[in-house]
Structures are given as structure tokens and as C-alpha cells.
Amino acid sequence: MPYSRNRLSGRTVAFVLAGGRGSRLKELTNGRVKPAVYFGGKNRIVDFALSNALNSGIRKMAIATQYKAHSLIRHIQRGWTFFRAERNEFLDILPASQRYEESTWYRGTADAVAQNIDIIDSYDVDYILILAGDHIYKMDYEIMIRQHVETGADVTVGCLTVDRKEATAFGVMGVDATDRITSFLEKPADPPTIPDNPNKSLASMGIYVFNWKFLRERLLADMEDPNSSHDFGNDLIPEIVSKGKAQAHRFTESCVRHPEAPAYWRDVGTIDAYWKANIDLTDFTPELDLWDRDWPIWTYSENTPPAKFIHDRPDRRGSAVSSMVSGGCIISGTEIRESLLFTHVKTNSYSSLEGAVVLPNAYIARHCQLKNVVIDRGVHIPEGLVVGQDPEVDARWFSVSPGGITLITQDMIDARARGL
């Protein structure tokens, strides 16, 4: 999509918040922040927010990092270095650093922006788009920014339409007939509903559009407030709702999808949700279209050979059915069903995988039977391991989710080998 000063996105900076660990993903985030977690065969979660910004025409981006950021920073440096400085394009990495007093950490989502006010000033933009870096979706931000300008709002909040009974897990917007936000409640027991649908509520996506001058003033005031938690959802947005003009933007208005497809957005913050979102991609027609060349998800494209399948005997056949197998994989005499394998996974004879999400560089030895598993990067699965048949046995050595998905890391394999 060509750059144009006529597009509001050309006068906008996308500021991605990517510092949270994502502790609900258990050991999967022991060595990496949640936005750096692998997804979809070759991507990282953060690629979706960044790709949406790029495809929307935004060429000025910044990403705030904090918890175990090395994997994320390395991914950005390898896969997102195609911006041209001479065209005033960039993606800045903004780690938490000692800038004010003796604090070296971002104290909240709003503080992550406030500590970089001087840097954002140097960008010379009119608007700032605040994004969470840990959700899976496709969205044209230009549409949301344009609504923000046309309504004259102080803040525009991206919102999902969810069932009222599910809204208790979100920040929920109360709105009037024009979608002006009248209340903002964090995980309410009795969520307000949409005026035209008493069974639905509007939940915050953690996406905000501000005029930069307006937000700058609010951030400076918030930094001086000793009672603030310095968070958009807890502090700034509720204050603007009560004293200014806050507008809701419905995700269905800017979701990128085929005309008959549902609006797709996923928080893959638990092992169950992460496993399902990956496995859903193996469906005949997945709701998330990664094959759409008009709205691609950009990432670091590793130079890999094609996937290879070898052996062809009834008890020793390299095969994959209803699965996604990435480049560099060698499937040697293994039966694979409804699974997703990332790059450079190697499997061996007489093994079977079903409902398996296998991260890069994992190795599956012979005679393994693995069902409904998430296998971390670089894990060496020993010969004869059986997982997914007896949850009690699995839970002795591995992390079993409430939905019955078994997470396997190398530390768990090593502990099992030692009998600990």
C-alpha cells in the first residue's frame, strides 16, 4: 500500500506495548515475552499488530519492550529492517531504561508512553495509535483513525462485540446510540450492554487513538499523580470518559476479512487458547486467512529448504493430513494429523503426532505418540514417549492445561529423565 500524506495514517505513529510477560502461557514465556511467542508456523504474535500498521499505511512505529526482550528484539532486527530512514520510515525499539529519577521500569501502559515523550515529539506526528502487541487479528487502522478525526473525540477505543456473559473478563464500554462512551468498567460483574442489543457488550481491545498534543498533556499530568497506576485502562481512559469525549470504534467496521467471514480476533494468552488458535489454522477454511496476499502478515522469513517426507510403508510412512508443515522440516516415517509444525522440526519413524503444535527446531525420536500437545522450541522428545493418553501420568512431568493440552519444555524432559 503506497505511502500518502493524504492518508491520516501518514501522520500517525503506532506505539506498540510489548513488555508484558504473559504468565498465563506458563513455561512458554519463561525465556521470551508474550509478543515474541511463535504463532502460525513462521510468525511471532507481535507480527500481527505491526503488519496491520504497515498495511494500513503507517510507516512510523515504536515498540516498548521490558520483560525478557532479547527474543523479541532479535526478531524485530531480523525481520523488520526494511524501513527506509531517508523516507522518514522507522521502527524504533524502546526498552525500559533509567530516564526519570532511579526508575528503570515502565510502571504501567501509560507510563511506557510517557517515559518516551521526548522521542515521540521528535516524530512530528499529529496522532498516536496505541496497540497491544499480543493479539491475533487483521485490522485496517486507517478506518479507526479517520473515525477518530471525524467525530472530534479525545480518545477512540477499539472495541469487540462480545456476549454479555463473556464481557466480565474485559474492560467494558457503556455507550449511547452514537457509540459515544458513557462508562468504562474493568471486568464488571454486571456488564452494560449495547443499546441496540441487550445480549451483547462492547469490550476494549486495548487499542486507542489520540491526538498526540492532547495525550501528551494528559500523560504529563498523570506522571505527577501519586494515586495513579499510570495505566490507560485504569486511569486515563476512565478520566477522559468522565471529563471529555471518548468514542467507541467497533472492530467489525475495520476488520480485514472476506465478505462472508466472521470478524476474527483472538487473545492467545492461555495454553488452551494458544493451542486452539494454531490448530484452527489447519481447518479446511480457517477463519484467519494467512494466505491473503492483499493483507499479508510480515515476519522474518528464514531461508529454509522445502519440507521433506520420507519412507512409505504401512507402519513407517512420512505423511501429514489436515496439517501445516513449515520449511526445513523432515518427516521421517511419522504420521501427522491436525498438527502445525514450525521450521526445522525433525520427526522419526514409527511416531505419530495428532493435535500437535511443535515450535522450531524440535526433535521427535522414534516410537513416540503425542496427542494434543504444545512442544517448545528446541525440545528433544526421547524415544518412546507417550503423551495425551493418561492426563494423570502426563501431569507428573509436564504442564497440563484445564482443557487437556500438555505443554512440554526441555526442562520438563530433563527433569523426567532424572526422575525428579
Class inferred from helices and paired strands: alpha/beta
CATH top level assignment of the largest domain: Alpha Beta
Assembly context of the chains: single chain
Q: State the helix count.
A: 10
Main sheet: strands, sense, barrel? 9 strands, mixed
Please tell me what the overall shape is.
globular
> Strand-residue fraction?
25-35%
Mean pLDDT: 94
Annotated CATH topology of the largest domain = Spore Coat Polysaccharide Biosynthesis Protein SpsA, Chain A
End-to-end distance: 55 Å
Count every beta strand, where a strand is a DSSP E run of 2 or more residues: 29
How many domains make up the coordinates?
2
CATH architecture of the largest domain: Alpha-Beta Complex
Assign a percent range to the helix content.
Answer: 10-25%
Classified in CATH, the superfamily of the largest domain is Spore Coat Polysaccharide Biosynthesis Protein SpsA, Chain A
Protein name: Glucose-1-phosphate adenylyltransferase
Domain Glucose-1-phosphate adenylyltransferase/Bifunctional protein GlmU-like C-terminal hexapeptide: 305-408
Pathway: Glycan biosynthesis; glycogen biosynthesis
Enzyme class: transferase
Write the layout of secondary structure elements.
Elements: E1 12-18, E2 38-39, E3 43-44, H1 46-55, E4 60-65, H2 70-79, E5 90-95, H3 109-114, H4 117-123, E6 127-132, E7 135-137, H5 141-151, E8 155-163, E9 171-175, E10 181-186, E11 200-211, H6 212-223, H7 232-243, E12 246-250, E13 265-267, H8 271-280, E14 308-310, E15 312-313, E16 316-317, E17 319-321, E18 324-325, E19 330-332, E20 335-337, E21 340-341, E22 346-347, E23 352-358, E24 363-364, E25 369-375, E26 380-381, E27 386-387, H9 391-397, E28 399-400, E29 406-408, H10 410-418
Parallel strand pairs: 1-4, 1-6, 4-5, 8-12, 14-19, 17-20, 18-21, 19-22, 20-23, 21-23, 22-24, 23-25, 24-26, 25-27, 25-29
Antiparallel strand pairs: 2-3, 6-11, 7-13, 8-11, 9-10, 9-11, 15-16, 28-29
Function: Involved in the biosynthesis of ADP-glucose, a building block required for the elongation reactions to produce glycogen. Catalyzes the reaction between ATP and alpha-D-glucose 1-phosphate (G1P) to produce pyrophosphate and ADP-Glc.
Catalytic activity: alpha-D-glucose 1-phosphate + ATP + H(+) = ADP-alpha-D-glucose + diphosphate
Subunit structure: Homotetramer.
